[in-house]
Amino acid sequence: MFRVSIAYLNYVFDDPRVLAFLLSSVLATYYLAKHIPGDYMPWTGMVFSMTMLAISRTNYIMNNIDYVIFNPNLTQPQMMLTMKLVSFCWNVRDGRQSSDRTSQVQKDRAVRTMPGLLEFTSYALFFPGLFSEPFLDFVEFQRYMTGANRVGDKGFPQGSPTDARAPSTLPKQWHPPGPTLIALRKGAQGLLLVALFHVLTKRYTVNILLDPNVTKTYNLPSRMLILHIILLTTRIRAYGIWALSEGICIATGLGYTGVDPLTRQPLFEIIENADFWGVEFSNCPKQYLRSWNTTVASWLRHYVYERINATRNKSGFAARTATLAFSALWHGFEPGFYVSFMGVSVLQCAISGMSGFHSQDLMVNEADKVITDLRKLMQNNHFAFASRKHSSSFRNTTTVLRHCLWAVMSWLLCQSLLDYALVPFLAGSLTNILKVWSSLSFYGTAVVVAVLLSTRGSHLLKASLSARELRSRSLSNRLSLVEKKLKVLVKWAGKQLDGTLTNGKRFEM
């Protein structure tokens, strides 16, 4: 696969300087990881890798070459190479740390023995991950190369957690079916999605919303629907490319994690880049982002957010903001990238403060409730609710309808706001972003500002009421304390007066 990458790079670019530039990044990172000790090594490797990526992007901009994320130019392999080099530096650093200073995930991915230069270069320029995800850590690649992920007696990788759930009904020498059919299925799926993208992109592009007459031709709901179709078309392109890349990895056996105990089919979960249902039918921004580009999201979480978090010794807004800024810089220099990531961050803050959406995932996943309620109705035959005998069925049906309505409304809200926040990713320049948002009547900005103001106002009102209640409580406590002191003083004065009167009587006698 390493030789395939070399041949492919020479064929596509037809310029030996491109391969030399990529190899220089690989060799320099290997030297840094091997010879620089201490905790500064991974930070140095991260800065170096991002600098090389910035140089490649600047070179294309200065030469007036229009680069897009999915075009096969130098920036795309450099992006993938940056992920591998940054993760390798951190994994080497984790391998040098004591066990009490690393988490369980870091222990599993730690590189405790420095690999040879040829092995590391093979990992960095491995063909299935050369131009697109999936991204794998060096340890996973090493297991694949050494055969450590080969099937065991029951078809599970040796040492894999999946081995613990091996069904006892399987024969002892049973092996899972080969990955050829799964790889072909992924490849066919990718080709169909790419073909569908080429059909849709002829009609649905962001240029529709840049047309000044779009507001006269379509009303606001129609423009919102067009926006959703445009972003769906863009996602279809990503789905297709990722499916092709996953098919290549599956064909080589890379990413094998075990066998599904129910279907007895091989699993390749660690190379999946997106959950289609989790993205397209999500009613929660956090779930949407978790389901999209999962390998990059995992890379950002483990090698950027958690590392920044560890230096601060606490979680906070600064770590999230720095991670979003790093992600935008990794994607490119276009202003739309930064506006999109900033918009998503503000959107998450706004929705997290909405009344009724407070949960671990910001929004309650009502789809699960709908399925659960429907299953109960089907099992109990709760559809004849006309009589009093089935009054409980009527209440259950009402609950199902309420959950369905909530699921649809939350899905519309989530998807429309995320479409508004992510369209700058396609618009690019600030001028185009303002034009697109203007054609959409700034509906997303209005909703987010209204939510922020309402939640801020409610928080201020609650804070003022709490302060007033606290002041009233403190005043009542003070009054009660004064009252107690007065009672003590009155008792003392009464005793003194009684003593004085008693002494006076004795004096008179």
Describe what this molecule looks like in 3D:
The structure is a single chain. It contains 21 helices and two strands. Helix 2 (16-35) packs parallel to helix 4, helix 14 packs across helix 15 and helix 17 packs antiparallel against helix 18 (391-422). It has a two-stranded antiparallel ribbon. It has three domains: 1-149, no CATH class; 175-273; 317-441. It has helices at 2-13, 16-35, 40-62, 75-96, 104-109, 117-124, 138-146, 180-200, 207-210, 214-217, 220-252, 276-280, 285-291, 294-312, 317-331, 335-352, 366-380, 391-422, 424-427, 430-439, 443-508, and strands at 258-259, 266-267. With 509 residues, it is mostly helical. Residues 67-72, 151-174, 355-367, 381-391 and 504-509 have low confidence and may be disordered.
Features:
21 helices, disordered C terminus, 2 strands, mainly alpha, globular, two-stranded antiparallel sheet, single chain, 3 domains, 509 residues
SSE blueprint and pairings:
Layout lengths: L1 H12 L2 H20 L4 H23 L12 H22 L7 H6 L7 H8 L13 H9 L33 H21 L6 H4 L3 H4 L2 H33 L5 E2 L6 E2 L8 H5 L4 H7 L2 H19 L4 H15 L3 H18 L13 H15 L10 H32 L1 H4 L2 H10 L3 H66 L1
Antiparallel strand pairs: 1-2
Short description, anyone?
This protein is mostly helical. It is built from 21 helices and two strands.
